[in-house]
Amino acid sequence: MNPLPRLQKVLAEMGLASRRQTEGMIREGRVTVNGRVARIGDKIDPSRDHIKVDGRRVAFSPGKVYLLLHKPRNTVTTAADPEGRLTVLNLVKERGARLFPVGRLDYDAEGVLLLTNDGDLAHRLTHPSFRIPRTYRVKVKGKPSAEEIRKLSRGISLDDGPTAPCRIILFRETRENAWMEMTLHEGRNRQVKRMWEKMGYPVLKLKRISFAGLSLGSLPPGKYRELREIEVEKIKRMTEVPSAKGARQ
């Protein structure tokens, strides 16, 4: 007999939010199971138990959706925006599923963004312990020296702590600007911009060209595609814990 899943895992799989966000809902007392206010760690039977969030019944739907979106510039990476700006979910609303973005991209940035209703996988892909690679193409104002690039790649101190080592390749320079390709294994808020600003080089353009080994290809801005089964399996393997990896071998 399979053990019952924890409530926050089930809510994430329903596509309500990421696992971290569903834990917040539970702590705030917004979730009930069979009329009782739920607690973190509660285990449930999705086929029998009645779950409500903010007083509304939610039904368990195991179907998973995995989309790769070419996020265009001037779009918000949230479910809704109080200022009425275009959100990434507006671009996939015809799918009908409760999707949410995996991580974030700045409003004025573009590039690879995953959308899913698989809250557990989304949590793992954004957790720093799995060191998921993210590659960006960055245009900065000014021309950083080779030593400055080496310093940044080794890691610098930001307000929220030191950055992990990253890979930086200078591939183009003009009289006033420089283009770099950066691969990071962490995804803090506005991290790329803050790193270059700390070095004295404001970011003029930012495009994420790859996330977890998934790239845009010929996908134009504002368009999306479903991940192929082999791609889904690949990113799931990237987020397996060591014991699980050993069991598969």
Gross morphology: elongated
What is the CATH-assigned architecture of the largest domain? 2-Layer Sandwich
Task: Tell how many strands the DSSP assignment holds.
Answer: 15
Q: Based on the structure, what is the oligomeric state of the protein chains?
A: single chain
Enumerate how many helices there are, as a single number: 7
Major sheet size, sense and barrel closure: 9 strands, mixed
Structural class: alpha+beta
Helical residues, percent: 10-25%
Q: What's the average pLDDT?
A: 89
Low-confidence stretches: none
User: Could you say how many structural domains there are in total?
Assistant: 3
Quote the CATH topology of the largest domain: Alpha-Beta Plaits
Q: What proportion strand?
A: 25-35%
For the record, the CATH class of the largest domain is Alpha Beta
What pattern of helices and strands is seen along the backbone?
HHEEEEEEEHEHEEEEHEEEHH
Distance between the ends: 24 Å
Q: What do we call the CATH homologous superfamily of the largest domain?
A: Pseudouridine synthase I, catalytic domain, N-terminal subdomain
Instruction: Please tell me how large the radius of gyration is.
Output: 20 Å
